[in-house]
C-alpha cells in the first residue's frame, strides 16, 4: 500500500493519541473530516494500523514492575521456535518479545505486580517450553520512557 504525505501525518498523530477525533485531526492535517475518516478506515482495513490500545499508568493500578529478559534456546528448530513464539504471544505478562541476534535468542519485556508473580511465570515458561536453555533478568528500577509509536517520516525521497 502506497502511503502519501497525509497518511504519514495521520499515522504519527494517531500513534500519539488514538482517541483523537477526525475533527481534531483535521486541525493538524489539511484534509476534510470525511477524507480523514476514509483514510483511517483504509489504513485499518489494509493492516497498516494493526490495532488501537490504551496505555495504562502502572502506578494508578497498584503498580507493576518491568523485567527485561534475555532468553536463550537450546535448538533453533522451526517447530520449537513456533511453539515458543505462540507461548510468548499468548502470555499477557509478556508485553513485547523480540527475536534477536547476539548471545540471546529472544529479548522480552515482561510486567508483573511483584517478584513472586514473575518467578511463577518464569517457572511456568521454562516447564512448558523444554527448549529454553537459560534466561537472565534485569529488573527495571524506574520507568524513563514507555511507548510503542514508530516514527513515520512524513516526507519520503
TrEMBL record:
<keyword id="KW-0805">Transcription regulation</keyword>
<dbReference type="Pfam" id="PF01037">
    <property type="entry name" value="AsnC_trans_reg"/>
</dbReference>
<dbReference type="InterPro" id="IPR036390">
    <property type="entry name" value="WH_DNA-bd_sf"/>
</dbReference>
<dbReference type="InterPro" id="IPR036388">
    <property type="entry name" value="WH-like_DNA-bd_sf"/>
</dbReference>
<feature type="domain" description="HTH asnC-type">
    <location>
        <begin position="3"/>
        <end position="65"/>
    </location>
</feature>
<keyword id="KW-0238">DNA-binding</keyword>
<dbReference type="InterPro" id="IPR019888">
    <property type="entry name" value="Tscrpt_reg_AsnC-like"/>
</dbReference>
<dbReference type="Pfam" id="PF13412">
    <property type="entry name" value="HTH_24"/>
</dbReference>
<dbReference type="InterPro" id="IPR011008">
    <property type="entry name" value="Dimeric_a/b-barrel"/>
</dbReference>
<dbReference type="InterPro" id="IPR019885">
    <property type="entry name" value="Tscrpt_reg_HTH_AsnC-type_CS"/>
</dbReference>
<protein>
    <submittedName>
        <fullName>Lrp/AsnC family transcriptional regulator</fullName>
    </submittedName>
</protein>
<dbReference type="InterPro" id="IPR000485">
    <property type="entry name" value="AsnC-type_HTH_dom"/>
</dbReference>
<keyword id="KW-0804">Transcription</keyword>
<dbReference type="InterPro" id="IPR019887">
    <property type="entry name" value="Tscrpt_reg_AsnC/Lrp_C"/>
</dbReference>
Amino acid at each position: 500500500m502506497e502511503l502519501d504525505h497525509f497518511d504519514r501525518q495521520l499515522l504519527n498523530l494517531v500513534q500519539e493519541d488514538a482517541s483523537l477525533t477526525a475533527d481534531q485531526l483535521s486541525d493538524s492535517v489539511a484534509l476534510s473530516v470525511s477524507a480523514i475518516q476514509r483514510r483511517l478506515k483504509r489504513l485499518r482495513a489494509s493492516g497498516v494500523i494493526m490495532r488501537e490500545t490504551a496505555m495504562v499508568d502502572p502506578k494508578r493500578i497498584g503498580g507493576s514492575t518491568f523485567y527485561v529478559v534475555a532468553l536463550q534456546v537450546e535448538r533453533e528448530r522451526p517447530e520449537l521456535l513456533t511453539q515458543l513464539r505462540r507461548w510468548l504471544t499468548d502470555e499477557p505478562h509478556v508485553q513485547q518479545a523480540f527475536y534477536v541476534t547476539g548471545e540471546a535468542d529472544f529479548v522480552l519485556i515482561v510486567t508483573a505486580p511483584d517478584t513472586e508473580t514473575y518467578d511463577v511465570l518464569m517457572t511456568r515458561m521454562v516447564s512448558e517450553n523444554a527448549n529454553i536453555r537459560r534466561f537472565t533478568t534485569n529488573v527495571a528500577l524506574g520507568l524513563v520512557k514507555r511507548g510503542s509509536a514508530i516514527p513515520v517520516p512524513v516526507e519520503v525521497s
